Amino acid sequence: MRHTLTSLSMMIALVLFAAVAAAAAQNKTTLPKTDINPQQFRVIYEWNAIDFEWTSPEDREAYLNTSQYIPQNVLISGINFYGENLFLTMPRMLAGVPATLATIPIQQVNTAPKLKPFPSWADNAIGNCNALQFVQNIEIDRNGIMWILDNGRVGTLTQNPDPKCPPSIVLIDLKSEKLEMERIPFPPETVNPNTTYLNDLVVDNRDGDYAYITDNSAVDPGIIVFRRSDKRSWKLRDGKSMRAANDATFFRINGTTVNLPVNIDGIALGPQYVTEDGKVDRKIYYSPLASFHLYAINASVLQNESLAPWGDGALQPYVIDLGTKASQTDGMKMDSAGNLYYGLLGIASIAEWNSTLDFHVGQRTIARDSNYIQWVDRFTFDDKGNVYVIINRLYNFVKNQLSLDEVNYRILRSHTGSKSYVFGEDVTPVMKPAYDAATVPTLGASLLALALAHLLA
User: Which UniProt keywords apply (predicted)?
Assistant: First the structure.
């Protein structure tokens, strides 16, 4: 009898151990963890006003005389890296912006370099719908393809914006010497050319190459999904998480107060991970400009085109409210290890969150300076472990209070050892065995009950 009890005890212990181990395996995250210690952010470029590499001094004078170039109306918004260059975007919110996409060298020559229009001056000609009209942001994927958001409509801060050209996504293969632009206009049933504002995007180089785009339209905000393989696009909406929050529309920065009830704005794409059913997915993170919350949704949900016709609310069951930030955020960017970089506009700060940790406890401020960090806009990473951020004093720009006697635009840099999310690790789907981790606890419980029944018999 004692021998039987000992055997049963050992059996019970083994079953309990197997059940606990299986449950732990089921809950274990597959996202990589990393600890970073960013060095101090330093100013590498700064400008009072933006100037360009003109074909001649006479050209510059002609642009000035005809108001095709109004220095105080040129605002740097987006930034990206490729090769030896930083790419900068200048949205044509006002008149007098001669080029909407340009480059500067990543190696410093001076602290206020002139911008070189990209791909050329002709490719930035205003009014030519084959050229770039209004570029808010770009992304460059792991294959060297530049994805450009061209709103088409110019003068968005004027009384009469011009919607002559259709909103489009434009692709350029940066590995090609020709730098030809492939333009794909969005269909009007997906994007309203009179109200859309294509703000930011992330690129997912899986299953046909997807772009997830924030449209912070004042009347119809949402996320536009574009699939490159067949050039299809659709739009998904969720009023609760994508519209401006009433308690977050006012911004007070360096004594200036501005009311900006702006909808969904920044967006970031997390690393690949294996889901409980063995498939590969990614998290998409986003926030309205006028919001203190960060939201997340699975890429697989956004790729489900059948949800688009359901309109506002179709995404609500799938949206995760991760929690609140200390202030509102404009741009954000994820690195390849799952660290999210974002600004905290009201407290002149740059923050970082390790997305493997709970958002409530995993956030930390990595830079704060009210003199140099005045409206954090967009981020990018180079190939040497540096992160770059655009500071652009947007609050002064929208109120027409820019002074050309002051520094209005800065690019800051910090070494973090990071690289862009586009170079994140590819994850392989898992073929689930007949008895997988999800069924072992149930099986273990059954065996345990059987053993106890035998013991008590």
Answer: Secreted, Signal
